[in-house]
Design a protein that fits this description.
This protein is an alpha/beta fold and 162 residues long. The protein is 41% helix and 20% strand. The model has no long low-confidence stretch (mean pLDDT 94).
């Protein structure tokens, strides 16, 4: 496909579930922009610079993936980079309810941009950045939950919390 797509999220931190979606979506588009959304109402554990760095490290092996950040409306950002599609991941029925509201609002704001849903791979269906941070801070193993490149960032976060 010749289109550009954007996969946006907080990626606080990027998990193996995120990476799985990136790896599966990237062959479907000419370019996939993985964009870290800056939302002042949702404080992040990791700085924007750290989240961008993590994403660049874990996607370095995918030639058509670009990492960026944005603030404001996702559809405005998508339009600004020429994206024709927004990628969203679904883990469970609860995700669908929330995501459907977002899709309908985005369609109202910008009908020319489509949303493409990808379901999570089974082994990551329970995984969230919030859960990973909690497990790490409380001393549990995050092996297999995040890419190896993310583990040092979680270690640093854990040390700062104790």
């Amino acid at each position: 496909m010749e289109a550009i797509a954007v996969y946006a999220g907080s990626f606080d931190p990027v998990t193996n579930g995120h990476l799985d979606l990136i790896e599966r979506a990237s062959p479907l588009f000419k370019k996939l922009v993985v964009a870290v959304g800056v939302n002042p109402r949702k404080p992040a554990a990791f700085s924007l610079e750290d989240r961008l760095d993590m994403l660049r490290r874990v996607t370095a092996h995918i030639p058509n993936v670009e990492v960026d950040s944005f603030d404001g409306l996702l559809v405005d950002y998508a339009k600004s980079i020429g994206a024709k599609a927004i990628i969203r991941g679904l883990r469970a029925v609860a995700d669908f309810d929330y995501e459907m509201q977002q899709v309908l609002m985005n369609r109202r704001l910008c009908p020319e941009i489509e949303t493409v849903f990808l379901t999570t791979s089974t082994q990551y269906s329970f995984l969230s950045s919030s859960l990973v941070k909690e497990v790490s801070i409380l001393g549990g193993s995050v092996e297999g939950l995040v890419p190896k490149e993310v583990e040092p960032y979680l270690e640093k976060l854990k040390r700062s919390q104790t």
